Amino acid sequence: MRQTQLFTKTRKEAPADEVSKNAQLLIRAGFIHKEMAGVYTFLPLGLRVLKNIEEIIREEMNAIGGQEMILTTLQDKEVWEKTNRFSDDVMDVWFKTDLKAGGVVGLAPTHEEPITRVMTNHISSYKDLPVYAYQFQTKFRNEVRTKSGIMRGREFLMKDLYSFDADQAGLDAFYEKVSDAYIHIFDRAGIGHLTYKTFASGGVFSKYSHEFQTVSDSGEDIIYINEEQKKAFNKEIYGEAETDKLIADMAMTKMGLIEKKSIEVGNIFKLGTKFSESLGLTYTNESGNSVPVVMGSYGIGPSRLMGTIVELLSDEKGIVWPEAVAPFRVHLVILGNSPEVAVAGDMFYEKLKTLGVETLYDDRDLRPGEKFADSDLIGIPTRVVISEKTLQAGKLEVKKRIASEAEMMDEEEFLRSL
Amino acid sequence: MRQTQLFTKTRKEAPADEVSKNAQLLIRAGFIHKEMAGVYTFLPLGLRVLKNIEEIIREEMNAIGGQEMILTTLQDKEVWEKTNRFSDDVMDVWFKTDLKAGGVVGLAPTHEEPITRVMTNHISSYKDLPVYAYQFQTKFRNEVRTKSGIMRGREFLMKDLYSFDADQAGLDAFYEKVSDAYIHIFDRAGIGHLTYKTFASGGVFSKYSHEFQTVSDSGEDIIYINEEQKKAFNKEIYGEAETDKLIADMAMTKMGLIEKKSIEVGNIFKLGTKFSESLGLTYTNESGNSVPVVMGSYGIGPSRLMGTIVELLSDEKGIVWPEAVAPFRVHLVILGNSPEVAVAGDMFYEKLKTLGVETLYDDRDLRPGEKFADSDLIGIPTRVVISEKTLQAGKLEVKKRIASEAEMMDEEEFLRSL
After folding, report:
1. What is the ipTM of this complex?
2. How many CB pairs under 8 A join A and B?
């Protein structure tokens, strides 16, 4: 895309009321717009990143048998009353609104209840199981405070997968598959090296659940990590006698664990039969008996993941996108006003398009310093400069966003390096 | 996809409270689930259709220079108060909800106000214009009655494009481009032959706006059509002296117009400077003066379009999807329990996958009658049967959903026909 066509402009300052680093940088670089506290519009650059993250997650969910669907925002209170979760005392993040036709509805903060009800129409026999269904859907949470940018919003995108198995063994096996898929996702998104699968409180139905926590000073959570084994423990269970035993069983010592701040980037949870029993999701097993379906739920917030990447991988000049999620692969920048440079820039841009290399082409009439500052702020992984100097040398000036120095390459060499 | 893996089941009856033909068929065939009146979940088959429609619209919007972004559901009342549209007396379809942190917010029924405010950060000079931005975003409308299935919901998907031009001439030219793009979209989606560009009331800022209306007995609107010229007039302006003059100017007679029921599938609207003036979206023109940006807005509801297709193109057996929006291109059905048939079915399914032909493979253990009934209900354009009979003949039995008779083809011939 030509940058003269991109409608967003970079800016020197973020809004004064924006305290999070991720939103400050994303607003300054033109990826997002703050509508109000905890509510952000995704501008064209931001939507490109979000869709790249979505696509990574979608591929991994499809690979383990997930079927994509999309549930609704407006929620029928009847289904939530069956699990006693419509009450604000039980679930304190509800937004609720009145129907003109009479009655109150909620805005979905999560979707266990409605998907369980949907499945009562489609699951009746052991032959119908297992079922794995997921969606990318906006969640609404009426948070009192919002100071983490797109990492914790009142309105945010979530991938939530729900599993429906015949028995605990089926759930346990699928749970491990999701865990592996999550590790792939965080690796592909460029934060795998900082992300730990942690033991977390399991609630009523299992001893432990697991979270995926990414080590970051801007995190709201505390975890205790073992770097060698790439394992960690959430603070809420740290210090409990059972956790001490678990640590010993895993041939670790509490002394060897390091306390770190972290961001929860994913969670996986064995729900058991809590929802299926409350909502009547049963099936007839091979012996002819009616038994409840065994469920699990698995979440990743693509917008939180995007915010986490910005928190972790930016530097003093701006954002540093990993290849797989970057809004474009190449930032092509022409310098100066000479017609030769413009022609060479246009030709190379067309060539990159033909080769399928997603390119942002800075064809704007601005000083080099401004163009470089914008390029660093926006954070596309590879910057290619064409100027009178590079034309004379018959080369391209190529600089990786993570590198400190540029290097001169001929075109063939550059294209091979992509 | 193997049908044994697809979690949705067809059903004989739609819910008793569902009166619309589109929702009845879509529920029975397993495309959607009714959460409550006017609120529908899109199941895997339904989401596939919706994404196909989205992709057609996206391609046409990108082709005319649209930049995709995504605005928010939660709406800051401050920005809507500037145009006097936050009041329920002015806009009677608001859902509103309270923030725990204090204050009330709305759920977006449309997005003119927030996008105009976003643009105040990015448009300041004539050099920044024009800008064309669009989104696919859920809209919320607190309708008192809902009896049209997914054609008019309380929560529904909308593509809304907004144009920002320097002057009226720019708006007028882009308005025609959108009009042409809309005609392409309805043609590609399979309802072009029944869709008319109509003259509609223009509101305060222009004499006429235009709508795209599809002739259907289930429509809520009335239009007067001239079939030859493929033009029509909305009832709200029909009978006005100015409309009479327009009809005469276009070399038509009122006598020659036919009254039809119709469904509004799109609208295009010249907003002029109403929103830019209220919200301070101005730019500095070439003479150095500050003037308001000239705006337009352009909507198509992908879910309404999907419902319209079902209303128009179904028959007594079920849905008849046009190729371009169908959830799969081919429905491969095996009959009987012989291992030879299963092997031949599996092999042909794998071949179609390799060739990139999206295929639903009915590998279920059911009687032929049940399989054919499901296939007709689901409405995939081409059905291919493999049975002992077809294997003996060395052929495939191919039946188009719109055809009454099947024909025998050899594999080569069938693959060429795709």
Report:
1. 0.96
2. 143
